Amino acid sequence: MSRRSSFSLRGRKALVAIKDERDASIVRRQFERLGIEGVAWALGEPVDFAPDLSLIDDEFLPLLQPAQRAFLARSPVIALLGTETPSRLKMVLELDPASFLVKPLRSAGIYAALVMAFERNERTSELKQQIIKLENRLKSRRVVLAAVLQVMNSHALAEPAAFALIRKAAMEHRKTIEELSAEITARGALPRATG
After folding, report:
1. In this structure, are residues 177 and 144 in contact, taking their beta carbons and an 8 Å threshold?
2. 15 Rama sector, left if φ>0, alpha if ψ -120 to 50, beta otherwise
3. Please, what's the b/e burial string for 117-129 (b: 16 or more CB within 10 A of its CB; e: otherwise)?
4. Could you report how far apart the first and last alpha carbons of the chain are, in Å?
5. What is the rounded distance in angstroms from the CA atom of residue 125 to the CA atom of residue 108?
6. How far is CA 34 from CA 27, 71, 114, 145, in A?
7. Nearest to 77, CA basis, from 28, 30, 32, 124
8. Measured between alpha carbons, how far is 72 from 56 in angstroms, rounded to an integer?
9. pLDDT tens, position by position, for the chain (195 residues)?
10. Largest CA distance in the chain
11. How far apart, in Å, are the Cα atoms of 126 and each of 72, 120, 123, 130, 182?
């Protein structure tokens, strides 16, 4: 399944929490042009849909309820900045925004902020998946090392030769080296060769 392009915004839903009516009307107008459904949200109200994006005005910060912060973490957040004081920026950073817009808003820049938010969110998700995969491989290295040591001892081989033997057996059995190593450590020996 191919991922949705960050440049294609039509049909997406956004949660919008903006205090100033002028800024809210600019966002509504741009969303209409881009084909995004914007749903106004007053913090604390329940939300009965999964938004693709959230726009949060810095005047609503800090979010005191952990449920609000957890809810916003499910999709990219665009922060609307009114002041650039260190304390305000610290509160905005707690949201982990994927992008930001500076108030007073103008129609220029909204599309770029949206695209950047979706793209950053996608890249972050991919990186998290890579990290999980690498952590799992790192954990499995202990099993591979144990299997190599076992084969070295049982076949009186040097480390490179023992690893080559495990790799060859893994290819013959159509398994990963990690899977075969787990079998070796569990059984105490290499599996029999096929064919």
Report:
1. yes
2. beta
3. bbbebbeeeeeee
4. 37
5. 28
6. 10, 25, 10, 55
7. 124
8. 9
9. 466 776 778 889 999 999 999 999 999 999 999 999 998 888 777 778 889 999 999 888 877 677 777 777 788 999 999 888 898 899 888 888 999 999 999 989 999 999 999 999 999 999 999 999 999 888 889 999 999 999 999 999 999 999 999 999 999 999 999 999 999 999 988 887 655
10. 79
11. 19, 10, 5, 6, 28
- Write out the two tokens for 4: 């949705």
- The length of the chain, given as a count of residues: 195
Amino acid symbol at 48: D
List the one residue out of 157, 163, 192, 193 whose CA is nearest residue 178.
163
Cα–Cα dist 123/116, whole Å: 10
Tokens (6 digits) for 11:
């049909």
Tokens 């459904």 belong to residue? 37
**How is 58-108 classified by DSSP, letter by letter?**
GGG-S---HHHHHHHTTS-EEEEES---HHHHHHHHHT--SEEEESSP-ST
